Amino acid sequence: MDNLSSPDSLLVTVQKNARTPGSMLGMAVIGGGQLYHFSMLTVTRSRPVRFGLDKRDLPVGVAQVVWFDPSGRLVADRLIFAGQPDTLSVAVRSDKAAYQPYDSIRLDVEVRDAEGRPVQAPLSVSVRDGWQEMENRHSLLTDLLLMSDIKGYVHRPAWYFESGDLAHRRALDELLMVQGWRRYDWESMAGVRLFDLKYLPEQGIELHGTVVSMVRSKPRAGVEVSSFLSSPGEDPEVGRQQSFGLFTTDSLGRFSFVSQIEGKWNLILAVTKEGKKKDHRIVLDRVFAPAPRMYSLAEMQVRVPGEEQKVGPSADEPADTVQVEEDYNLFLQAYEDSLRRLGIDEKIHHLDEVEVKARKRDKASDVYQARTKSIAYYDVASEMDDIQDRNGFVGDDIHELMRNMNPDFYTQFSPSGEEYLFYKGRLALFVINYERTRHEEMDFNKYRSLTLESIKSIYISEDLGTMCRYADPRFTPMNIDKLYGCVVLIETKPEGEIPAKGAKGVRKTWLEGYSKVKEFYSPDYRVLPREEDYRRTLYWQPELMTDEQGCATVRFFNNSRCRYPRVTVNVLDSDGRIGSLE
């Protein structure tokens, strides 16, 4: 494929070797998932066959050229970039060259086409504090036309659209030859491989689930599932809203329903059969967390505009400088010599008695320190929902809950049959609402009497200081370190906010609806604030409409340190023309 010699034509060369039998081949040119060209060619000789294709009808962007045999199997394919993007001209004028802290900022944006005519189209405008900001490698132009059709890391994708000369077009052509991923699978499109449509287009907030038996998790068909949705009622203007529904499971025990809600709603599901409640479990399809991905070294490379990348030795370091690892013993000897020069020869020194006048730390400070030094945090209600959606069962056993949330927990039984929870080989210390736990049977096992519905959150800390603060004061720090592997900090809900446990065959959960539209925070600094403002994003408007003259104006206030704001404007009009400015 020669995509460089002619701006309007794609030059194709087809040739088989002497050992390949002659065959009829089909060629398809696909852009954006649609077929734009199809032709057939019978190749019987080993001499090359050359012809040209008009590519002016292809949409601007990545296109796929596919050669296939009579059975539809792919013989060869190639990605090309067709045409040059029809861009719009975007201009931004500021009312000042530089700004003072909390200054009023005015920006005038103007959009015109290639002939200089004004364009009325929606703009996406972002204004940021450009101090030590990482370089932006993407724009609307690169993401729509290039990055959405290829996979992997591309260094500075905007560079390929800086110019339409031969060097940039050749680099773009070579980039598409080495990116091996195809957005549209030809064998599925040709019917060679069965295409399984797993998810239909959504018609609203869909919820799918399965009713299974309590013990063996067998699907239960023909049972009725009733749903009750209620809004939290936090917004006084909206008030509390409610919705009811009734469904019957299919032969696989499946059910589903669609709702049109905004925000987080309370959801109660109940299973009945012939009017009688059934002790079945309801498993919802809500486990969509992606698997962790390791980032390549290239993807972690960042650059701050305006700062030079240092390569090699620094300016104040001679080129022949050799770094020698410092001898640790020599360092200690020099340290002891410095102490002797100060007259300090003894290993134990008695300091003069002092009176400490600092104020004692309050409980809020201790709670803050314990939270910040924790290595794990769990929202218990969300974790229990996640366990049930994975077809797990916890009941009211806090030990099983901890094992499901963290694999470092496990249980052991004493000779008398008592169950204890261990963490990394040592006991786990449970603390309720940041009150000391004494090593006595009543106090040590008090957490076992808590219902899981009454627990708000759990923090896990391996910090020895935190364990000493909440363990039995009769223990020394050495004893605590040998006895406990971690401290489990349990925070409970207030007495009046503890929900009732669901009855037999009832699942109490929540349903996340559409996100509520919020206006971007923009403070008014006509009266100066008392505190510093370190906002990185000063202004953001995803849909700013220009007028008939192609102009739009925005006004906002600066933060407390920015002098030269960094402005990004993207535009996409109804004809598909793209404009981008940074």
Topology of helices and strands:
Blueprint lengths: L8 E6 L8 E9 L2 E10 L5 E6 L6 E8 L5 E9 L6 E6 L9 E9 L9 E8 L10 H8 L18 H13 L7 H5 L14 E9 L10 E7 L11 E7 L5 E6 L4 E10 L2 E2 L2 E5 L43 H14 L21 H10 L3 E4 H10 L8 H8 L3 E5 L5 E5 L2 E7 L8 H4 L10 E7 L2 H7 L6 H7 E9 L13 E7 L24 E9 L5 E7 L7 E8 L5 E4 L1
In a few lines, what is going on in this structure?
The chain is α+β, with helices and mostly antiparallel strands and 582 residues long.
Spatially, the strands of the biggest sheet line up as: 17-21-22-20-19-18
The overall pLDDT average reads 87
Given the structure, what is the number of helices?
Answer: 10
The N- to C-terminal Cα distance equals 35 Å
Name some characteristics of this structure.
extended; 5-stranded antiparallel beta sheet; 15% helix; alpha+beta; 10 helices; 582 residues; 32% strand
Give a description of the structure.
It is a single chain. The chain is an alpha+beta fold. Helices cover 15% and strands 32% of the residues. It has a six-stranded mixed β-sheet, with helices on both faces. The longest helix has 14 residues. It is extended, with a radius of gyration of 34 Å. About 3% of the residues have low confidence.
